[in-house]
Structures are given as C-alpha cells and as structure tokens.
Amino acid sequence: MIISLALYFVVMLGIGLYAFKQSTSDVSGNMLGGRNLSPSVAALSAGASDMSGWLLMGLPGAMYLFGLSKVWIAIGLVLGAWANYFLVAPRLRVYTEKANDSITIPDYFANRFADNKNILRVISAIVIIVFFTLYTSSGVVAGGKLFENSFGMSYEVGLYVTTGVVVLYTLFGGFLAVSLTDFVQGCIMLIALLVVPIVTFTMLDHPVMETLANASYDLLLISPKASEVHSLNMLDWFAGGSTIAIISALAWGFGYFGQPHIIVRFMSVRSVKDIPAMRRIGMSWMTLSAIGAVLTGLFGAAFILENEMPINDKETIFLVLSELVFHPLIAGFLLAAILAAVMSTISSQLLVCSSSLTEDFYKIYLHREASQKELVFVGRISVALVAMFAIYLAYDRDSSILDLVSNAWAGFGAAFGPLVLFSLYWRRMNFAGALAGMLVGASTVLIWIYAPITINGASLSSVIYEIVPGFILSSIAIVLVSLMTNEPAKEITTLFDEVEQEL
After folding, report:
1. Which pTM was predicted?
2. Rounded distance between C-alpha atoms, residue 409 and residue 425, angstroms
3. By C-alpha distance, which of 134, 56, 149, 58 is closest to 340?
C-alpha cells in the first residue's frame, strides 16, 4: 500500500512541476489557467474539487449508518450540479470575461455592479476566506483519518503529510496544476467508487436486501450512541425522516450556485461553446460517482453486519472495505483515491482563498501597482498561510467531515448562490441588492448554526438545513432592496445587454 501511495505522490508533484513550467507567468495564468482548459479537464476538475473526501468517507458513512434515508443528499447534489451547468456555466463564462476580465468571484461582483469602493469585493472575499478555511479543514481531517486508520501513523502526522503534498504542487503550479491533478484524481476516484461496491457485493454470502432490511446499530459501530441502538430498515427511503428532513437533504443542490471553487471552473474553460461537452462529461462522472458512494455505504453495512465486525468510525467504511476485501497493492490504489478526493478539493479551496487574499486584499489595499510576478508570489504565500490555519482547525480529532462540509456548503450557497443567479439573469439588480443578499444569506446561515435558539428543544440546524432559510431570505433581500433603491447605472445595464447578445 505504501508503494502505491508513494507513486501517487510522485505523480502529483510531477504534474505540479509540469504546470509550473507552463503557466505561472501572470495572475490570469496562475489563477485561471489562462481561460484555456479543455472541456474534459474543466469538467473533471470541477467534479473532483467538488466531491472531496466526503464523497468517499462522509457520504458512504451516512449511508452505512442510516441507509437510503440519506440518499436524498446525493439526489439533491446531482440535480443541483445539473442546474448549475445549465443556468450558471454559459453566462458566467461570458460575463466574467466581458466584466473587465474578472479573475475571482469577488472580482466579478465588483465589476458586475461597478463597485468602485470595493465593498462587495471585500465582503465576498471575507466570506470566502472564512467558510473555505472551515471547508479546507474537512479535507485535512479526512487525510488525518486515512493515515491514522490505514498506516498506524498519528492523526497529526496525517494532517501534515496530506496538506504538505497539496501545498507543494499548488504553490508552484497554480490553477493549471490544480486542474490537471484534479483530472487525474477524478479518474482515480471514479474507478475506486465503482470497484469497491462491486467487489464487496460479490463477497456477500447472504441476500443484501434481507440483511439491510433488518440492520441493527449495535452491529455497525463498536460504541454506538444509546439513541442509535435499534433496528432499522436501511432500504426505507423515508425511515425516520419527515418531509422537512427530505427537503433539507435535497436542498444541498442549491449550494452549487454559490461554490467559488466549482463555478470558477466555468470561467476557465476555453470557450462558451465547450460548455455542453463539459456538462456531459461532468454530469456522467458525478452521477456514477454518487451511485458508487451510495452503494459503498450500503454494501459496506451489509458486509459488516454479515461478518459481525463493527467499526469505530462510520466515515472509515471505505477504508475498512479497501483493506479487508482487496490485495494490499490494490488497496493502496484505493486509498490513493481517498487522497485524490481530499487533495483535489483542498488544492482548489487553497487556490480560491489565495486568489481572494491576493486580488481582493493585497492588490486593492496594500500595493495597487504590484507587478504580476509580485502578485503570484503573494498568492503562493497565501496558500501556505491558509493551509496552516486549516491544519490548526483540523486538530480536533472528533470533527465530522460531513458536518464541516455541510456548514461551509450552506454558507456559500446562501451568501453567493442567489447573488450569482440574479446577477446573471436580472437586469434590474443593483449594488444595494447584491450587498443585502450577500449579508442576509451569510448571517442567516451563521445564526442558524450558532445561535442558542431551539424549537421544542432542537437546534435550528437540526430542524431544517440552514441553506434553506439562508437561500430564501437572501433572494428576498436581493429583490426587495433592488426595487426599493435606484436603478443600476447605464454602464451596468449596457454590460448586461452585451452578454445577452453574445449568448
């Protein structure tokens, strides 16, 4: 297994070195790959940066413990990704290039609404840095768990090894390195998510349906919570779930419209004409990967129940199956798939944070006349700083990968999702509406997660996923404030009309 992982690390660093020689001479090349990615690279890069360690650990873990009642999350994500490709991708590709060649999402907001005082740029950059640091820490946690469970290393060492390799190829190769490694990592992830459930299924002696229909938590976890020790029909899509719970799960799809590390891939594809091909490739990859993750959790539960060998952490079911069912050499490849998932997302998030710190803080407030070489250097320093803080947050060994992802996902979805959609489709939207929507969306999510408010003893977040009220209230704020304030300036509406004509 160690040989397979070592080979994987060498390949990733080699790609980083190749990218370093190709496209780090200016900010556009470093942050967007010169807007010249092929549809296949852009699509798999978007998918791999989206489906992080939670796809191979978080989602299979949820399926392992709760069965098909958690499949609504996967369904919501697939539908959301499909809508993102149709609604956001073509317009954002055209708009960001026409809006003064916007390189980052905050840059786009500032140019779209003629934000000469950089208020939108700064606030959106703060939202990105805060939520992405949390998001990045979820991937670091996944890497720590991988090395701890599979190689007997300490959890802390795993954090540093995982993050160290990512930082190296991100530092020097920039966006091109991240995209090319994402492409390779996406292929590895897909193969693993198809191989593991298929082989696990062939290893089962008893009928899967019968085993899963009578599952018991005390046979799934070594130390189950008292409230979880009961039988459950894992094939029941509605087990223990209300209509609101299903809506909450499906609402994950709304998050796609506001994820900077995903929609930035739409900005980097070489032409708007390549979007349909990118969509077909991306959705095929995502659908197969989601199905594989769901089946990994379900068949993994059946395997554990049949062999009566409970595990400590539900989010390590992919690791357990890889080591128990496969030859060590193949297991090493499968474990590399988890590293691929983790690294692809961490690298994308580090790059987006770096872009915001460089373009939206350093260049605006510290050195407006900075050279391209200086900005690239500052971007690399920013990558290292964000990575170190993410490691610090990941030191909490009990952190749940899925919980960390869900919080950050909701934050971006509510703060940026409505803003991106309205900015692309509503001519009447103005600066005041954009600012109100962003602030209302982000603050609603934070209040929903952290405010000491309960409903019948349950926290707001446990009643309904925070992205739902955040997305709705943000949309309302955008519409009301835009209508109550002055119409956008002529230069803004002219730009909007130019984009409409090109599309």
Report:
1. 0.79
2. 23
3. 56
Determine the structural domain holding residue 333 and report its residue range.
2-502
Contact yes or no for 420/445 (Cβ under 8 A):
no
SS3 295: helix
Return the axis-axis angle of helices 119-151 and 155-202, rounded to nearest 10°. Answer: 70
How many domains does the chain divide into? 1
At residue 70, what are phi and psi to the nearest 5 degrees?
A: -100, 0
Give bridge partners of residue 458 from the DSSP assignment.
455
CATH code assigned at 243: 1.20.1730.10
Q: How far apart are CA 470 and CA 135, in angstroms?
A: 18
DSSP single-letter state for residue 427: T
Q: How far apart are CA 409 and CA 134, in angstroms?
A: 10
Pairing of strands 215-216, 454-455: unpaired
Helix, strand, or coil (residue 327) = coil
Q: How many Cα atoms are found within 13 Å in the side-chain-facing hemisphere of 223?
A: 2
- How does strand 231-232 pair with strand 215-216? antiparallel
List pLDDT tens digits, range 292-337: 999 998 898 888 888 877 777 777 788 888 888 877 777 777 777 6
